[in-house]
Amino acid sequence: MTGTLDRRLHAYRPDLADIRLEQKVSAKRYTHGMEAEIKVPLAKLHPKPDHGCAIDTEALFGETLRVFDRRDGWAWVQLDADGYVGYLREHMLGDCAGAPTHLVCVPRTFVYDGADLRFPVVHALSMASRMRVTGMTETRGTTYALLGDGTAMIAAHLKPLAETTNQDAVAVAAMFLETPYLWGGRSGFGIDCSGLVQMALAMTGKHAPRDSDQQAQGLGELIDPARDGLKRGDLVFWKGHVGFLEDPHTLLHASGGTMSVTREPLQVAIERIAKLYGHPTAYRRP
């Protein structure tokens, strides 16, 4: 039975499993897990507790998750945002401290040690990091958002959660142009093809699975270019790759070819990628 479950989305091991899988998998023990929150700017999620293995994805500051096990400095978790399961370093976690009020709405920004851009930078954060703003203040004409620990951020780099819907996902994706390509990346510091799609849709209030194969299976509706045409916002899938259409002839994607988020003519991309991975496998309209 366990062989039919995707390990990326189901937390189970021979010794321990998510209690929600009790009727589906066999394990020595089942657990509800404990709620926790990411307390570092970026947490890398590994398929096993080993720094030597490639990352699967990343979790952003303020994102919540469920912790099933803590051992040898590692935590075995499942992210609430997209259900991804994996291992991250235990020190990256903290207790949940209440609902966030704002999201970072630019690819990258800074947290300062007070409401002044001349103050030391505490850390840098990616788009979609979740923040709890306690107030606003102004310094030399710039408005700052105040955080509960006394730090501050540029207010224009944040949006209230309620205002992150009804945006253009392609316009969000275009904000990442020239961002380095990173396998498993899901942030403004490095991002992969499916991470770009997931991020852009999330910032417009739409849920998307994490990986391109998952997105190709059920994100939006399958379309036939010959019958339905192509338009801005459509997704083009290859085996192991995905990108947005900026218009019927232009692809915007995190490219392993340029090692950055880039745009290129769709037909040029099709011909280039075909030499390595074949032709597009699907077109979908999210």
Report the portion of residues in β strands: 35-45%
- Give the N-to-C terminal Cα separation: 32 Å
- Main sheet overview: 6 strands, antiparallel
Task: Let me know the average pLDDT.
Answer: 96
The CATH superfamily label of the largest domain reads endopeptidase domain like (from Nostoc punctiforme)
Number of domains: 3
The helix tally amounts to: 5
Low-confidence stretches: none
Features:
37% strand; SH3 type barrels; endopeptidase fold (from Nostoc punctiforme); 5 helices; 3 domains; 286 residues; five-stranded antiparallel sheet; globular; mainly beta
Give your account of this protein's structure.
The chain has 286 residues and is mainly beta. It folds into three domains: 93 residues, SH3 Domains (SH3 type barrels, Roll), CATH 2.30.30; 62 residues, SH3 type barrels (Roll); 117 residues, endopeptidase fold (from Nostoc punctiforme). The chain is 14% helix and 37% strand. The chain is built from five helices and 25 strands. Strands 20-25-21-22-23-24 form a six-stranded antiparallel β-sheet, with helices on both faces. Strands 8-7-6-3-9 form a five-stranded antiparallel β-sheet, with no helix packed on it. A hairpin with an 8-residue loop joins strand 11 and strand 12. The longest helix is centred in the last third of the chain and has 12 residues. The model has no long low-confidence stretch (mean pLDDT 96).
In summary, what is this structure?
The protein contains five helices and 25 strands. With 286 residues, the protein is mostly beta strands. The chain has three domains: 93 residues, Roll (SH3 type barrels), CATH 2.30.30.40; 62 residues, Roll (SH3 type barrels); 117 residues, endopeptidase fold (from Nostoc punctiforme) (Alpha-Beta Complex).
